Please model this.
Amino acid sequence: MKSQRHSAIRELLVKTTVTNQDELRRKLAGRGIHVTQATLSRDIRELKLLKGPTGYALPVLADGE
Amino acid sequence: MKSQRHSAIRELLVKTTVTNQDELRRKLAGRGIHVTQATLSRDIRELKLLKGPTGYALPVLADGE
DNA sequence: GATGAATAAAAATTCAAA
DNA sequence: TTTGAATTTTTATTCATC
Model:
């Protein structure tokens, strides 16, 4: 289910460093969530993640977002 | 000169939206600064730019950075 | 609508070379 | 030490399928 995967991604990002989508894929797989890179690319867009020098990060959201 | 190009990049980012490195390259070229994608990839790292849903953005820097 | 496989596009890196 | 050309790697998209 997508919403659970999104939650798992958020958690991973606050707890660990995620450098690229394949690393994210492997970390999710370690939690039993198996998806492909294409799906993670879409998730990253939907979650509005930022990619910076140290990897992916959660955005600061305005009220209501 | 790299430092001037970095300044130009910062200016472009606050004034315009830059979606990808080739667009950045073209906008810099419009200012007379001609470099390749490889150079811009390095600049982006050096400037610690973030890439988000709307394009590249300047980072919020801590004091002293 | 959500996903994967394949592909295209974008970005990072390597390897000269100045 | 900075850069470009070529290459590799990573990410986004397309095109089916469920």
Summary: The two ends of chain B are 21 Å apart (CA to CA).
